[in-house]
Amino acid sequence: SAVISQKPSRDICQRGTSLTIQCQVDSQVTMMFWYRQQPGQSLTLIATANQGSEATYESGFVIDKFPISRPNLTFSTLTVSNMSPEDSSIYLCSVERRGLGGQADTQYFGPGTRLTVL
Amino acid sequence: QKEVEQNSGPLSVPEGAIASLNCTYSDRVSQSFFWYRQYSGKSPELIMSIYSNGDKEDGRFTAQLNKASQYVSLLIRDSQPSDSATYLCAVTLSYSTLTFGKGTMLLVSP
Question: E strands along chain B, which residues?
């Protein structure tokens, strides 16, 4: 598996402000991902954080709203910009471990950041 | 549009019983299948992966895959109250992107 940490674990923010969430992994990984989990819902992929290039965003998510950095193979940040109450959610980073011996590549999740926007 | 469908539940079983969780997926070329457990207020935790037709057992957990029917299930034997959680089914193609179902809430009563 992987040891993944996220900061902050939770925050309460005012409308119109921005919050940057950090994700740190205990070893180098190629693939890192950012998800959102709205209350009572499942996980929705926001983007894939690519090291050395721009993030790849899923439909419905744009870089201006969710800028992502990936400066190295163990760290990534997600910024939630110009927040509104609809952005209240849990934000999760995940990393992929390559499968060995024919095993499938597998994603492991960080502890998440619980964001409340007032 | 790739879809992963799960019954939202809650699925209620008594302690010691077998809990059966089901998942169907729409993309016939899906290759890898995962079950995650998510306790309330916590992040998803991987409990099983499967990518070949048939059964895969790990302790009290058995994952079953039927690609022809586009169906994957998770059996939990000897269910314990500590198994009470939401179970998320996830499916991926070869390029890593996971698609999650909405999850099934399992309640195991003592």
Answer: 4-5, 11-14, 19-25, 32-38, 45-50, 54-58, 61-66, 71-76, 85-92, 98-100, 104-109
CA A116, B3, B4, B10 torsion: positive or negative?
positive
Q: pLDDT digit string (tens) for A7-29?
A: 999 999 999 999 999 999 999 99
Q: Which two tokens stand for residue B101?
A: 């179902």
Return the pLDDT at B97: 80
Which spans in A5-45 are helix H? none
In the structure encoding, which two tokens stand for residue A51, read together?
């090291």
What tokens appear for B59 in the block? 């302790």
Mutate: best of A1, A21, A30, A43, partner B, most B CBs <10 A: A43
Average pLDDT, chain B: 92
Task: Please determine, for residue A63, whether its predicted confidence score (pLDDT) is greater than 80.
Answer: yes
User: Residue B88 and residue A110: Cβ atoms within 8 Å?
Assistant: no
Identify the DSSP state of A9.
S
Looking at the DSSP bridge assignments, the partners of residue A118 are none
Give the end-to-end CA distance of chain B in Å, rounded to a whole number. 40
Residue type for A25, please? V
Tell me if B63 sits within 8 A of B71, measured CB to CB. Answer: no
Q: Taking CA atoms, what residue in B is nearest to A105?
A: B96
Eight-class DSSP state of B82: G
What whole-number distance in Å separates Cα of residue A35 and Cα of residue B22? 23
- One-letter amino acid at B15 equals E
